[in-house]
Fold this protein.
Amino acid sequence: MNELRLANIEGKISTVQDVLIRSLSPDNPSTLKGKNTWNWVFPEKTENARVMIACRHKDTTAGNHFHTRILGKDPERFLFIDGKMNFWFKDLFGGYIEKVIDTTELGVVDIQIPSYILHGLTVLSDKIWFIEQQAEAFNPSINYSVAEFEKLARSLKKDIP
């Protein structure tokens, strides 16, 4: 069995209230082209910016992990383009938020997940499409599991008098 890692805490510990979910405004609603065009800006001073394009299918899950403060994952940034999903977020203090996000109602949705927030999604429509801003290609070793999240949460409770 693999040993569970204990993530290091750097800086402020985020809560689920720090998760950002917002519909993007179209570039120019007064024209047909502008009404169907959006810009999603990379953070300032982003080097080696990459875009991951992902398609996930009905009833599959993704995520179920968290990240520490690392380049490109602080915050983790998704642009949800098409479909319907159930997205949930949990913080180290026990806070929990669950949202159904449907692009037919909300349009294009920007989702920003800060460090130390456990998160996952389940696809509710036939499929979903999203892109993610990344500093490097997908690297599973930077993901911490649900079990590692619980280990970190327990370690923090020991430190509280």
Q: What stands out?
A: The chain is about 15% helix and 35% strand. Strands lie at 20-23, 50-57, 61-66, 76-82, 84-90, 96-102, 109-113, 118-123, 127-134, 144-145.
